[in-house]
Amino acid sequence: xxxxxxxxxxxxxxxxxxxxxxxxxxxxxxxxxxxxxxxxxxxxxxxxxxxxxxxxxxxxxxxxxxxxxxxxxxxxxxxxxxxxxxxxxxxxxxxxxxxxxxxxxxxxxxxxxxxxxxxxxxxxxxxxxxxxxxxxxxxxxxxxxxxxxxxxxxxxxxxxxxxxxxxxxxxxxxxxxxxxxxxxxxxxxxxxxxxxxxxxxxxxxxxxxxxxxxxxxxxxxxxxxxxxxxxxxxxxxxxxxxxxxxxxxxxxxxxxxxxxxxxxxxxxxxxxxxxxxxxxxxxxxxxxxxxxxxxxxx
Length: 298
Ligand SMILES: [Fe+2]
Hints:
Elements: E1 6-16, H1 19-30, E2 33-34, E3 43-46, E4 54-58, E5 63-71, H2 77-86, E6 92-93, H3 96-102, E7 106-111, E8 117-122, E9 152-157, H4 160-170, E10 174-181, E11 188-194, E12 203-207, E13 218-223, H5 226-238, E14 243-250, E15 256-261, E16 267-272, E17 285-287, E18 291-294
Parallel strand pairs: 1-4, 5-8, 9-12, 10-17, 13-16
Antiparallel strand pairs: 1-5, 2-3, 3-4, 6-7, 7-8, 9-13, 10-11, 11-12, 14-15, 14-18, 15-16
The structure holds fe (ii) ion.
């Protein structure tokens, strides 16, 4: 079985019946750059040299609908699809109109064992237009020309081991580290996974006995210094956005971050100073401790 070479988290689609709440939240609080309204009904946001990174798409539910992962453009997509089908997956190609809407050359769609929609895409278009943030965010940390992807997200699932096998064995993600929260119910496990870029993790899989309907624990975006994080906290206060975890520093990726509530109920982690790693020199670790300080959940 061929292993996909996933380069980065290219985009996320958020389904929502309340775009009027997402627009000010993402633009004025998070600081992403809204693009012009379009006939598709998608509300699209830009973070870096990529044409767009996040879209709020019309729907009945409030959830992280789709994660778009960018594949090595040299891979033969038909071979990837065939290998995934041989492994028992139901895979469909993205249509020409799907690709046009996403600004990608080609792509596949399948579902992970939790039911999350996964798109594997190639040659996402960059427009090299600079970020013009309504909140004056100077820069989101997405690497050189966006090659570290937009950030990371945490996927909650009852199908913890199956999801781990799906992302690791079928899609070729690698384990960065693992964590086990202790608790009277046996606790919960977390795997942090990286793809082919220095970001500490682009996906974490969280063992959730009762996963929320919104398909996500949190979505992380990174900025370049602590002042940007502090200014984000001021904007949250000004816009009455609920803080769900105080400022803190994670042990594993070293990120200094705060978590606030998005209109879908999952959190947005907004942080800085995360590790960027050389995977040739790295060995996965295990811990029970999420944070060096802070991150007190409200
Ligand atoms: Fe995170």
